[in-house]
Amino acid sequence: MEMMGIERDRLHMSWVSSAEATKFIDVVTQVTEAVRALGPNTRFVKQQAKVA
Amino acid sequence: MSEWEPKIVAFLCNWCSYGAADLAGVSRMQYPPNIRVIRIPCTGRMSPKFALAALRNGADGVWVSG
Amino acid sequence: MLGYTEKMRGIASRLLKDCSVEMVIGFRKGSMPMMNEPCFVTTIEDVPSLIWDSNCGINLANYLTNRKEKIAVFAKGCDSRNIVNHIIENKIKRDQVHIVGVPCTGMIDKRKIAGMVKGEILEVSETDDTIKVKTADSETLFEKTEVLQQNCTLCIHRNPVIHDEMVADPVEEQTSLDRYADIQKIEEMESEDKWQFFEDLLSPCIRCYACRNACPLCYCPTCFVDESKPQWMGKGQDPIDVRTFHFLRAYHCAGRCTDCGACERACPVGINMRLLTRKLEKDCQEQFGWEAGLSLDQRPALDVYQTNDPGTFIK
Known about the structure:
Shape of chain B: flat
Number of strands of chain B: 3
Strand order of the largest sheet of chain B: 2-1-3
Oligomer: heterotrimer
Order of helices and strands of chain A: EH
Distance between the termini of chain A: 34 Å
Largest sheet of chain A: none
Radius of gyration of chain B: 13 Å
Structural class of chain B: alpha/beta
Strand content of chain A: 5-15%
């Protein structure tokens, strides 16, 4: 994806066990911050035809 | 309109992160409300199609967690 | 590669005569210069139509998918690797195919040649290392090395990796090539430039799916582009749809692509979609030390888990 010019931080992967609620929250926060820093996704969005 | 908030599609494995999310909820922990959770039976169910479909439909980020 | 034709006809007649195969897959002359087409020979009478020259770039492994009969196939280096892929992926059994190895010195790029001469090309003939191109009012002689397909100039497996017999002695392999110079250049671009680069690269695409049809790896009963429930992408020429198609097609070839160049060769508008598949090939090479289709005993890189698999991208 990065090769094609989609920003790296748009896609995240992680391992969280079902007992790790705190890690879950950490990762959610991290991911949210990373995406927030990138700003809105404009590249790969399919524009729907505008209907009057 | 108020300030822009990122929309993140989260693909969570039923047995791992989905459980963690559940536990976080039950424990009344606070976390950012930007994720939209999609439960998948296993991270093995994940496919590149899903990530692309999410982005195509306007998600700002995709998060896969097992 | 000039003497191959006679030997091939000999091999084909022998195999058909002693009934060890029901069909021989090779090439015959196409209706236009530089357009050899695949040829399925089932009777000895048809054997003389078989030929071999530098226009046999189509990947014959493509025609083996899910066949039930015994087949002999002429296989270049890349074809043989795709046959290995097919066997590993259970698309054909090893004892069903009689692989006739063809050491290959590269196939010529018809688009390149058409761009280098003026007027319609009427005839193309070749010697071992030159190509003569005849148009209505001129005749041009090229060194074969200057008109090779790009993937052939970068090829490091010219000799078949598996074979039951060989048409000729192995040719010398190319070594010390910088195979991924162009990929590296793209990798070094800024994110925005990359986006623009592929926007320009893919903009002529007419979604004819010739690349998919020519590709020996693309044998899904229903391709994701044809699925409508759910519909993964639109059918039109919307740039995002085009991009999704090329992106996902490349992904399906991850760890399987042998860079045979069939996709680029088949493309009517000349898109170099190999930039995408080769990026994945490069990653497989770097991260898992894996090259597709080299051996029957090894499972593909994306098929196995090892504790030392790279995982730094996982939080």
